[in-house]
Amino acid sequence: MTSGTERPEHDHDVYRTLVESTKAIPWTIDWATMRFTYIGPQIETLLGWTPESWVTVQDWVERMHPDDRERVVGFCVAQSQAGTDHEADYRAMTRDGDYVWIRDVVHVVRGEDGAVRSLVGFMFDIRDRKRSEEQLAQLQARLEELSYQDGLTGVANRRMFDAVLEREWNEARRAGQPLSLIMLDIDYFKQYNDHYGHLQGDECLRRVAQALLSASTRGRDFLGRFGGEEFVMVLPDTDAPSAMRVAQRCRDVILEQGIVHEGSRVGGTLTVSVGVATQRPTEEGTAFDLIARVDKRLYAAKQLGRNRIVSEAVPEVERA
What we know:
Layout: H1 7-20, E1 25-30, E2 35-39, H2 42-47, H3 57-62, H4 66-81, E3 86-93, E4 99-110, E5 116-125, H5 127-147, H6 158-175, E6 179-186, H7 189-196, H8 198-213, E7 222-227, E8 230-236, H9 240-257, E9 272-279, H10 287-303, E10 309-311
Parallel strand pairs: 9-10
Antiparallel strand pairs: 1-2, 1-5, 3-4, 4-5, 6-8, 6-9, 7-8
């Protein structure tokens, strides 16, 4: 029979065996000296560092990814000083120089006077959880991307256009720079669909979209499908003459496609009508003002016979 004096030691051994048989890695730190008083042997299996190599808090700090160090150390120290239990996720360095995602769950032990005496915690391997979170984040990002993409042509959709135009309008207003908008409409597209069928019409829209992408050479320029057979381009920091040149390139690249259109009333190949508007945003105006102006010029291009560009810089460009 075990005596009463032997039981505490026996209980301690049982507790230690139970703790060290789990995947969680237990540890304790003396607050006054900032030294580890214990760390479970599982640490060597996970990170390769022996328990004996964890001497002070500095060992913990130095074995943390540099990008996580300032954030995690600052947070944990502040919480510990306040006597608040806490947890933190970070990347811990293995002995081979790789990194493993760790979650540290920390309990602050206080004395009778309320002062912090020690920290007791558990390290958890959360690699699988982080991997799942990253995959979920990638999936969400892809879904978000798709929500801003026109499913037929692959260019941005109207929702994305609205967001980009609002952003560029605010930036142009802040910088005092001009902002230009180009709106294009495929001439007699209903007749194209009626004559060749909707499948061929879809292919036509894809070809037009890809051709228009090649007309812009600057990274910030934006192309989107406005709706139906209409496309729109946002040109930041672009004055009226420069926007006119881009519009001409757009019209030219469509003509170069040589897409046969027997139902067109302006020739035997596919053409576009184009409106161009430029504005220097002010506090009083809105992005909708610019849309209204470019839409008015697109309408004028159609009224003047289609296959042409109407711009503020050049009121009318005769069709080729």
